[in-house]
Design brief:
alpha/beta; Rossmann fold; 7-stranded parallel beta sheet; about 40% helix; globular
Length: about 250
């Protein structure tokens, strides 16, 4: 006579249960998908973006707690947003903005300053205004890239801007501790931003990447969102840069 042990059901606790996640640039693409993923893991989410109508559509789609429409490069508007935001908050992901490409000698001095400093300054301003309301162990996540690591004439200034983000984040992590600071360095991600940059070349780029990337497919916003939520939930991670490009930086 044999007996069978009853099956044991193990219910996984949501990783962000009871936490609040703020998405700076959360109305589309990586920010919106991270909001969706964070909600699935039990978090409340707050979305910001420039366009109020698109922001409200995004908020309804993910069940956001609140939204705020403003330009994240406006330091005063950013400060007012965090002043008005109820504490505490746990995590902030900054996806607003994008890289600048172009030959160096064709850029004005002001364009160079913009390309090199705007992303860093924005990250610093978010840290300055958000950190007083953040719980210990929470994280500020900034976006970087892997494509700019290869220096080319066509890319121009983007390589210098790419190189600046990881050491900036590491130094900021020491200053903000026990709040954590990390960087997600993405390659091509199939987002509305990528579509706006590539225009009618988008489909050709997708096909090329499916053919050449080691993973055999294009990186999607959901892939980056999964990484972002992991960084939020794993409290041992700080001062680090995490690549997510499907191996793009290792192929021609």
């Amino acid at each position: 006579m044999t007996s069978t042990s009853p099956a044991v059901s193990i219910e996984r606790k949501p990783e962000l249960l009871g936490q609040t996640v703020v998405l700076i640039g959360g109305s589309a693409g990586i920010g919106l998908e991270t909001a969706r993923r964070a909600r699935a893991e039990g978090a409340e989410v707050v979305l910001t973006g420039r366009r109020a109508e698109r922001l409200e559509d995004a908020a309804r789609a993910v069940g956001a707690r609140s939204t705020a429409a403003f330009d994240a490069t406006d330091s005063g508007a950013l400060e007012r947003f965090f002043d008005d935001l109820p504490a505490p908050i746990d995590h902030v992901l900054v996806t607003a903005g994008g890289p600048t490409y172009g030959p160096l000698l064709e850029m004005t001095a002001e364009e160079v300053r913009h390309a090199l400093s705007d992303h860093i300054v924005q990250g610093l301003e978010v840290a300055r205004y958000a950190s007083p309301k953040m719980r210990p162990g929470g994280t500020l996540i900034l976006m970087g890239g892997t494509g700019g690591r290869k220096i080319t004439a066509a890319g121009g200034i983007v390589s210098a801007a790419t190189a600046a983000t990881p050491p900036f984040a590491a130094a900021l992590a020491l200053e903000l501790a026990p709040v954590r600071v990390n960087v997600i360095a993405a390659g091509f991600v199939d987002t509305p931003l990528s579509a706006s940059i590539l225009g009618d070349q988008l489909d050709a780029r997708r096909s090329e990447l499916r053919r050449t990337l080691p993973i055999g497919r294009v990186v999607e916003p959901q892939d980056v969102a999964a990484l972002a939520v992991h960084i939020m939930s794993n409290t041992a991670l700080t001062g680090a840069t995490f690549d997510i490009d499907g191996g793009q930086q290792y192929v021609s």
